[in-house]
Amino acid sequence: MHVFEIIIALLLAGAGLTALSKRIGVPYPAMVALAGAGLALVPGTPTLVLDPELALTLFVAPVLLDAAFDSSPRDLWANWRTVAGLAIGAVGLTIAAVALVARLLVPDMPWAVAIALGAIVAPPDAAAATAVLKQLRPPHRLLVILEGESLFNDASALLVYRLAVGAALAGTMSPASAIPMLFVVTVGSVVLAFVLSSVVIRVTARIQDVSIAVVVQFCGTFAVWLLAERLHLSGILTVVVFAMVTSRRVADIIPARIRIPSYAVWEFAVFVLNVLAFILVGFQLKGILGRIDSRTLLEYSGIAAAVCTATIVARIAWVSAAAAFSRWWCSRPAPGRAPGHQDKVGLSRGAAAVVGWCGMRGIVTLAAALALPAGGADGAAFPYRDLILFTAFAVVLGTLVVQGMSLRPLMSMLRLEDDGSVEREVRLARVETLRAALSATSEQPGDGDEMSGLLRRRYEVMLRRAQAELAGGVSVPHGAATVEGPTPDADVAIVRRATSAERQRLLALRADGTIGDAAFQRVEQELDLEELDLQQLTPSADSGSAS
Fold first, then answer.
1. pTM of the prediction?
2. Fewer Cβ atoms within 10 Å of its own Cβ: the N or the C terminal residue of the chain?
3. What CATH number does domain 2-332+344-414 carry, 1.20.1530.20, 1.10.1370.30, 3.20.20.70, 3.10.20.30?
4. Is the pLDDT of residue 404 over 60?
5. How far are the Cα atoms of 87, 250, 320, 321, 528 from residue 524, in angstroms, in the given order?
C-alpha cells in the first residue's frame, strides 16, 4: 500500500511538473526525470523491482503504437534518406562509440555487454524534442524527421540489444549468424504486422461501444507485441508497421463518437507510462545506491558522464557529416540540373544543428535497461546490470536536462520558422471536403427537401469561409455555423451522405498525396466534431450507446 500511495502522489506531481514545463518551455520528461532522480535520494522510499520481461511490453508497445499511428508515410518517404541515416547510421555510430568508451573504462566488461549498453542508450526519444519544438513552430520537415527517426531507431537499436543480451548470457556472439537472423526478423515482422492489421480491423469494425473499443485497442496492442516476441520477431518493428498500416485503413471505419474519446484515453495512457517509467527507475536506483559505497558511486558517475558525452558527440558528428555530404551531393553539377540547385534532401546548417542537438533519451532507454535480467530464482543477473541501469538513467537525465532545456534558446538563435505547409494543406482540405458535402446534399426528390436545403445553406456558408481562408491564409476551424430546430428521422440519410462525402474526399486527398497526415488529422478532428454536432439534429442516426 505504501508503494501505491507513493505512485499516486508522484503521478499528481508529474501532472504539476508537466504544467510547469509548458510554462517555462522545457520538455516535461526532463522535469519528471529530475523527480525520479530525487526519489532515489529520499529516505524511506521502498525498493521496487519490475519484472524484466514486462518492462519493454508495458512501456514501449503502447507509446510506440501511439506515435506510429500518427505518422505520415508520405512525409516519411519524402525524407527517407535522412530518417534512415539517423535510424541506422546514427544509432550504429552511437552503439560503437559507447561500447568503445565502456570497454576503455571497464576493461573486464565483455564486448557483448558493452554493445548492449550502447544499444540501450542509442535511440533518442522524439517526444521530448517535439514537446518543445511544437511550441516554437519550426519547419514541419524537422518534426517529420525527428518523429520518423524515433519510430525506426528504436527498432534498429533494440534488434542489436536483443542480439547483444543473448550473446552476453550465452557467452558467444557470431556476426555471420546475426546478419541472416536480422533479415528474417525484419521480413517476418513486416508480414506479421500486415496480417494482424487485417484481423484487428475486422474486429474493430464490429464494435460500437466506446469502452469496449478502447479495451480492445489496448489489448490488441499488447497482443501484437507479445505474439511477435513469441515468434522471435521484433515486437517494435511489428508494432510500428501494424500501427502505420492500421491507421490508413480505419479512418472511415471507426465512428467519431468512438475515435474522439479513444484518442483522449491514449494521450492519458502515454503520459502515465512516461511518468511511471521514471518512478520505477527511481525505485531501482534506490536499491543500487544502497548496494554500493561512495567510491563505487564515484566510479559509476564517471563512467555515466563519459557515456553521456559519447552519445551526444556521436549523434552530432553523424548528423553534421551526413548533412554536409547531402548538401554537397545535392548541389553538385549534374546533367539536367542547374548549377547551385539545392535538393530538399539536404538539411541546412541550422536544421542539422537542431536535429543533431535533439538527442534526448527517454522511455525506450529506461525500459530497455529495466528489461535486463535481474537474477534470482530464474537465473543469473545480467553482467554489470547495476552499472548499466545507473548509466542509462544518467544518460536520460543528462540529455534531457542539458539538451532539452537548451533547445528553446538554440531555436531562437537559429530563427528556424514554420514554412506554413501544413496550414496550407489544412485550408485546401477544408475547401475540398465542403465541396464534396455540398455535392452530396444536392436536392433530389424524396430526399427530404427541407433538411437538404438547410444543410446546403450551412455548407455554402462554411465553403465561402473556407475559400476565403485558402485565398487569404487565415485559418478558422470547420463547423463554425450551427443549425437549430428538430429534424425528422427521414433526414438521417442526408446527414450521413454529407459527412460520408466529406470523409471520403479527405481520405482521397491523403491517399493521392495532396495532403499529409498532419493536415489529415487536423481536418479529421474537425469532421468528427461536426459529425457529432449534426447527429444532434438526427438522434436516430446514432443507434448505439456512446458509453
1. 0.79
2. N
3. 1.20.1530.20
4. yes
5. 30, 12, 37, 39, 6
